[in-house]
Amino acid sequence: MAAMYESEITRFLRELKAARPQIEQEQRRGRAIWWDKPQELQKDRDDRQSRVPQKPYVYQTDE
User: For residues 16 and 22, is the Cβ–Cβ distance under 8 A?
Assistant: First the structure.
């Protein structure tokens, strides 16, 4: 049985995708530019190991 209720956001998204069918492809391209980058595992590991632990109170001057 199909649902009788359709929220405003669902209707908006359905209409937007119908009006601009290329929108999902544009989203994937944008994600690839900003987020889907090759990972440098060794560099990330070295960065994590080289971090100096922060003191609980950063303005404390005694060693």
Answer: no
Distance separating alpha carbons of residues 24 and 30, to the nearest angstrom:
10
25-37 burial, b at 16+ Cβ within 10 Å, e below that, comes to: eeeeeeeeeeeee
Report which residue type is found at 30.
G
pLDDT digits (tens, 9 = 90+) for 11-47: 999 999 999 999 999 999 999 888 888 888 999 999 9
CB 17 within 8 Å of CB 23: yes
The verdict on pTM exceeding 0.70 is no
Q: How far apart are CA 53 and CA 63, in angstroms?
A: 13
